Amino acid sequence: MGRGRVAIVRRCNCPPAARTETIMSVQLNHTIVWCRDKQKSAAFLTEILALPPPTRFGPFLVVPTANGVSLDFHDVEGDIASQHYAFLIGEREFDGVFARVRDRGLAYWADPMQSRPNEINHRDGGRGFYFEDPDGHFLEVLTRPYGSGG
């Protein structure tokens, strides 16, 4: 089965030969990132991750990622619930991202509980860390997907 394809087996009390399998192609396309200043928030992400500048689509500033998923920044007034966004990056990109976070004097942690400040983690044989964006969204960069071994 190809990447991004999910097999769904219909549950029934019938013999195995009568069960059907439906193949669905499901991919995350975009998510909305609520923020107080979409210009500032989108610029922060593109600068830290070395992504191309955002593009405008209606009321959104759209930041695409390499796998085709975009983060669509939209201004909102009032409280913003903190969300978590994790980015899988390459080993070469990690050093640049880490340097930009440190150069800005941003706090960072090795763990999502924020109990290991000023450290990175080495989960699954890779490297990763957590930091916050201007609106308090909890961002993560990692070089190996969780459960990939190592």
What does this structure look like?
There is one protein chain. The protein is globular and about 60 Å long. Helices cover 17% and strands 31% of the residues. It has 2 helices and 10 strands. It has one domain (5-142): 2,3-Dihydroxybiphenyl 1,2-Dioxygenase, domain 1, CATH 3.10.180.10. The two termini are 25 Å apart. With 150 residues, it is α+β, with helices and mostly antiparallel strands. The strands form 3 sheets. A 4-stranded mixed β-sheet has the order 3-6-5-4, covered by helices on one side. Strands 7-10-9-8 form a 4-stranded mixed β-sheet, covered by helices on one side. Strands 1-2 form a two-stranded antiparallel ribbon. The longest helix is centred in the middle third of the chain and has 13 residues, at 91-103.
Summarize the SSE layout with pairings.
Elements: E1 5-9, E2 21-25, E3 30-35, H1 38-49, E4 55-57, E5 60-64, E6 70-75, E7 84-88, H2 91-103, E8 108-109, E9 128-132, E10 138-142
Parallel strand pairs: 3-6, 7-10
Antiparallel strand pairs: 1-2, 4-5, 5-6, 8-9, 9-10
What integer value in Å does the Rg equal?
A: 19 Å
Number of strands: 10
Question: How widely separated are the two ends?
Answer: 25 Å
DSSP strand content: 25-35%
Any idea how many domains?
1
- Round the mean pLDDT to the nearest integer and report it: 90
Largest sheet strand order:
3-6-5-4
The fold-level CATH name is 2,3-Dihydroxybiphenyl 1,2-Dioxygenase, domain 1
